[in-house]
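Our preliminary data section would be incomplete without showing what the modeling component actually yields. Below, a chain of 174 amino acids is followed by its predicted structure, encoded as tokens that our downstream tools consume directly.
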Amino acid sequence: MEVEIQDEKHTGRVAAVYNNEAAAKAAKQKLIDNGIAPGIINIVRPDDSNISKKIEPDSHGIAKTIVKSHGWLGLIGMIVGILIATILVSSGPEMTQSSPLFTYIVFIFFGLIFGMMLAGLISIRPDHDPLITKTIETSQEHRWTVVVQTDDQDDIDLVKELLENSAVSTSETL
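Predicted structure:
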């Protein structure tokens, strides 16, 4: 059985900053001309009111990832807690053998908590923060950002190669 806890469509992102609209649109066209699907390319304009949707368009997928990761990893943590408690109750120190109920409660609780904390780490996606922050700052500085979202490493490499010489700066997350 395979457990899928990541529900986002595209977790890889490349952002390239441009000083004006014409340069950003030319960069987008260059990407399209080189085989990048137009649907995964967004242009964030200065003071864009839809900036969050353009940077993280898959909010539904992110929410599903949060729920699934917490559910699955919490359950796995509880199972690991049960296994550890069972080992300790059957052949561990005398304290765990004399209080099996307390041993199970403690290890199930901490297994659940550890699983949920791991899920939080997966859900938060701190690797996206620098790109998001840079894109917001760029918009506030009246610059344009081309954001490409894909999971295909070949596409990511191609986008970086195509945009790095024309952009003021580029950044990526995987």
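The two ends are 26 Å apart (CA to CA). The CA atoms of residues 140 and 164 lie 22 Å apart. Preliminary results of this kind motivate Aim 1 of the renewal.
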